[in-house]
Amino acid sequence: MAGPADTSLLLDGQDVPPVHEDNTAGRSPFLLTSDHYGRAIPRALGDLGLPASEFERHIAWDVGIAGVANALSKQLDAHLIAQRYSRLVIDCNRPPDAASSIPRISEATTIPGNEGILREAVEARRAAIFDPYHRRIGEVIEARLRDSVPTVLVSLHSFTPVYAGVARPWHIGTLYQRDTRLPPLLLEYLRAEPNLVVGDNEPYAVSDDTDYTIPVHGEKRGLMNTGIEIRQDLITDPDGQKQWADRLARVFGEIEATLRTQGLI
Ligand SMILES: [Zn+2]
Question: How far is the CA of 262 from the centre of ligand 1 (A)?
Fold first, then answer.
């Protein structure tokens, strides 16, 4: 049976709901999403067989992005839809049929609680966490389109400064695939900021195989969209999160004015 009964297979009354929202009546054209906002684990899954230290790391969530997302939502008066469970439970920016949706290994860490996972358990994680999150993003976008509210999708992420022993030079990157309008503007404005190393589809590029939020919610609906990746060592503490939220609020304010001038929103 579809609906709430599916969720009860995994989450109980003491687990947090998967979807977090801020500023639902926000008037900004930018709709913010954060797929890797939280690192909660459903009580029924214990600790997935991992020591607590692994949940401090990037493999469990996007370190620092929650603080940036909350502040940016407030400053832009933008609706934020975020997901509270760890990407080690189910990755909300992967197609559910991708091997990395429920990772057996992340960077060099084996996830014991994901090894040999049964089909029913995979379905329960999807029904409890992935589906409600993406259903909510879809509902919000459809409602905005129905009401002719300009909607530009911005998917917020952060990346580890060193991955598999390789240091990454970028402070921030824009991520995109098919949108040729917003990402070039964002690159232009970020590159005008002093002392920033800006990645153009670095450290990742968006693809249908490795991403979900941008291809499904942005590209399939023809919305302007971009992903943003901020290097995690810059936003580890509240001061860094505030500085980056301030910067992005200013940059997106300028971009909004430009898009209006160009008649794109
Ligand atoms: Zn992420």
Answer: 31
Give 194 Cα–ligand 1 centroid separation in angstroms.
25
Instruction: Give the strand pairing for 198-200 and 166-167.
Output: unpaired
Encoded tokens for 80: 């934020």
Cα 211 to averaged position of ligand 1 atoms, centre (Å): 10
- Residues 225 and 212: their CA atoms lie apart, in Å, by 13
CA distance 171 to 197: 5
Q: What is the pTM of this model?
A: 0.95
Q: What is the mean pLDDT for each group of 10 consecutive residues in the chain (265 residues)?
A: 53 95 97 98 96 94 98 98 98 96 94 95 96 98 97 98 94 97 97 96 95 98 98 98 98 98 94
- CA 261–ligand 1 middle distance (angstroms): 31
The candidate with the shortest Cα–Cα distance to 14, out of 37, 40, 35, is 40
